[in-house]
Structure to design on (430 residues):
């Protein structure tokens, strides 16, 4: 294992000192005008980030889990005043917002850097370095081997940050924001449809202002909706607008929500939460998210972490997510195992098919399987001996799901030359 022993690089912590960097709670920073004002984009980002950050992982050496390693400490601690879950969740949000995330490997610690302040220095042969804007005229340059760099796909740029999801769905986000502003304006005005007060009598400007002042004071605002009023001088209210329910605002808002969820690849049900989720469809939506969105993303994270981080510290180990420890997926695996076991017991499927579907190697035979194989071979031996005693060929046909194909061929070849009972019995010896 090789480890760097150079002094740590001094770098400003953007999540503490940088006022331009967005804050997930207050929405401060250059992205706040979009993400912080879009409840659904905000929710989709956090759902994806949290699911990815909560995936179990291990450092492996071969097929064995390494319990203690500097890489485990680096990833778990993940920089000052942070941890792995926070770092990965925020990094996923970085990528969804800006098309890339950057981690600085500072000897034995990791630091997440502000993607808005990073510049990828590219050449025809690849990435040369990264420049970090510390503010003002100060800049800091990092070598390619110091940065763990993850990027989205970009059709016109193979090295720089990719196209972010927020960029793709900005029209839908804008539509959501505008729809919310329209609803806010409606309630701020009078909490009822737009009205026109009409009368056949002449109304002076002063009288009109007095009536409007009284009307607004009595009926303005959502809390005054439904109050009873009496209008003098024959004034009659006429509806000139439409209710929120009847207007196109709700339809536009719902379409915007659908489009945002499609862009982020997050089931709408998970964003709505308890509104429409049930005991059944809620977990199913989450399973879909993990299998369709989070798992492919995790594979990309694995590749980058192994290439840019693990190989630089200790090339003899690897970082991998532990999918067999994800509880919600194991429920599916258990149900699958029960279904296949039932089909196997009924003779519908073979042992080979069962093993393939469950991902069990042929060599991984348990004691129960070996016992069943011995019993099957014992039946074959008795059948062959009886055939020989009847004066027939000892190489009798025999099929069993517990005897491998290679083993069957071997026994059958031996039986073809067996001319005595002892010879038949010897055909089944290992």
């Amino acid at each position: 294992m090789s480890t760097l022993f150079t002094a740590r690089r001094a770098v400003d912590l953007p999540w503490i000192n940088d006022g331009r960097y967005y804050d997930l709670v207050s929405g401060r920073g250059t992205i706040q005008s979009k993400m912080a004002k879009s409840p659904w984009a905000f929710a989709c980002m956090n759902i994806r980030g949290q699911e990815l950050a909560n995936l179990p992982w291990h450092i492996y050496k071969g097929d064995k889990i390494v319990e203690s390693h500097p890489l485990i400490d680096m990833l778990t601690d993940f920089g000052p005043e942070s941890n792995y879950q926070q770092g990965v969740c925020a990094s996923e949000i970085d990528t969804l917002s800006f098309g890339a995330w950057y981690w600085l490997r500072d000897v034995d610690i990791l630091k997440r850097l502000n993607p808005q302040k990073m510049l990828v220095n590219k050449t025809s042969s690849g990435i040369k370095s990264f420049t970090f804007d510390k503010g003002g005229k100060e800049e800091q340059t990092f070598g390619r081997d110091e940065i763990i760099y993850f990027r989205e796909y970009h059709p016109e740029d193979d090295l720089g940050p990719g196209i972010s999801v927020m960029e793709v769905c900005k029209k839908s986000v804008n539509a959501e924001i505008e729809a919310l502003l329209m609803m806010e304006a409606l309630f701020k005005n009078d909490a009822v449809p737009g009205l026109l007060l009409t009368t056949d009598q002449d109304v002076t400007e002063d009288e009109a202002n007095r009536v409007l002042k009284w009307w607004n004071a009595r009926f303005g605002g959502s809390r005054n909706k439904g109050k009873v009023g009496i209008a003098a001088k024959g004034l009659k209210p006429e509806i000139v607008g439409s209710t929120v329910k009847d207007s196109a605002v709700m339809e536009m808002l719902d379409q915007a929500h659908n489009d945002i969820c499609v862009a982020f690849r997050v089931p709408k049900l998970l964003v709505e939460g308890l509104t429409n989720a049930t005991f059944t469809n809620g977990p199913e939506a989450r399973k879909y998210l993990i299998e369709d969105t989070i798992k492919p993303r995790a594979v990309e994270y694995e590749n980058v972490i192994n290439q840019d981080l693990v190989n630089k510290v200790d090339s003899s180990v690897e970082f991998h997510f532990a999918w067999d420890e994800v509880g919600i997926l194991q429920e599916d695996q258990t149900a699958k195992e029960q279904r296949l076991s039932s089909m196997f017991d009924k003779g519908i499927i073979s042992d080979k098919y069962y093993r393939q579907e469950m991902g069990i190697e042929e060599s991984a035979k348990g004691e129960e399987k070996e016992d069943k194989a011995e019993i099957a071979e014992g039946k074959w031996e008795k059948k062959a001996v009886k055939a020989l005693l009847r004066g027939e060929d000892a190489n009798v046909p025999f099929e069993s799901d517990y005897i491998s194909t290679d083993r069957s061929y071997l026994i059958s070849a031996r039986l073809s030359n067996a001319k005595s009972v002892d010879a038949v019995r010897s055909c089944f010896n290992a």
